[in-house]
Amino acid sequence: MNASSNPILRIEGVGKAFGPVTAVDDVTLDIRENEFFALLGPSGCGKTTLLRMLAGFESPNAGRILLEGKDISPLPPEKRPLNLMFQSYALFPHMTVRQNLSYGLEMERLARTEIHRRVDETMATTDLTQFADRKPEQLSGGQKQRVALARALVKRPKVLLLDEPLGALDKKLREKMQLELKRMQNEVGITFIIVTHDQEEALVMADRMAILKDGRLLQVGAPEDVYERPADRFVANFIGVMNFIDGKVGVDGLFAAEGLQVKASGNAGSATLAVRPENIVIGPPGDLPVSGAIVDIAYHGLDRVLHVKTTASATPLQVRIPASGAGNWKIGDALSLKIDPARCRLFQ
Ligand code: ATP
Known about the structure:
Blueprint: E1 7-18, E2 21-32, E3 36-40, H1 47-55, E4 62-67, E5 70-71, E6 82-85, H2 97-107, H3 112-125, H4 141-153, E7 159-163, H5 171-188, E8 191-196, H6 199-205, E9 208-213, E10 216-221, H7 223-228, H8 233-238, E11 243-249, E12 255-257, E13 260-262, E14 269-275, E15 280-283, E16 290-299, E17 303-310, E18 317-322, E19 334-339, E20 344-347
Parallel strand pairs: 3-8, 3-9, 6-7, 7-8
Antiparallel strand pairs: 1-2, 1-4, 4-5, 9-10, 11-12, 11-14, 12-13, 14-20, 15-19, 16-17, 16-19, 17-18
Helix pairs in contact: 2-3, 2-4
Adenosine-5'-triphosphate (ATP) is lined by residues 18, 21, 23, 41, 43-49, 197.
Function: Part of the ABC transporter complex PotABCD involved in spermidine/putrescine import. Responsible for energy coupling to the transport system.
Family: Belongs to the ABC transporter superfamily. Spermidine/putrescine importer (TC 3.A.1.11.1) family.
Domain ABC transporter: 9-239
């Protein structure tokens, strides 16, 4: 199921302060139906506070939260058609997987057969059928994580809120679960809002993402928008790897730094050129406009990152090249490079 363009949730000028600390500052954001949405930002940027306000565990000092056009601000958590999956899983240790899933539905006094049907269906979606009779202590970390997710899904919320859901898993399992979460979200067709501080995770999973810093919303967009067209220096640096070259835009509209000229349009004055490591082309010395020397080479499996010292920037530029095309480049080699003006950003 694909995300539609109808907003299911509207966050309107929402703010929250804890005494002198402004945790969330005037955030306005629409989240679409069936969308996998990520709230991303460094520690302390206000992501969890925003999620807790959606769930009803904190109340905003300013603004409104609308679900399908209705203000849910006055509703307590249990009356909201949103469900929060906790970071700590919070499974009942003495109950089996099936009992953990059934519990919430029994509280809602659903009929036995309906509970059975829904629990079976949810266990199938989350690959838990074979563990139905096990208790949490008999499960691996990834399986427990799936039970926590299943328990939130079985109640069929309109929106599922996930606070760092993969935080407790090791890297390999985390990467596997990122894809599984995305598959499950697609299958159940529920809007997922996930909080993460891991930019890779947001890029892999999200249909769209919001980047927050110091409680403020800096940018909202699809992963490729944010990666290709970061709104400011902070976002450019936070998402992926970025080279920054300080220089000036002249009256001719050309960006120039020591030994480097790029046709990037901007206003005359000081400026910073931002270019991704994959958007720099290298060649033998003298072939391309900028000359440099390799000071370091980092091997990353499929590709290699050359650290190249040039006159254009104080810190070496990172240049990503496929391992297959890496040739015989060695530390100390001289080379030349070129920056494609269409693939870089100018910040002023
Ligand atoms: P992390 O990734 O570290 O969990 P976060 O982006 O989720 O961070 P929040 O937990 O939302 O950030 O916190 C935002 C700011 O509000 C922080 O400066 C935090 O110290 C402060 N804060 C959060 N909850 C409270 C509280 N109950 N009382 C006082 N300050 C709080």
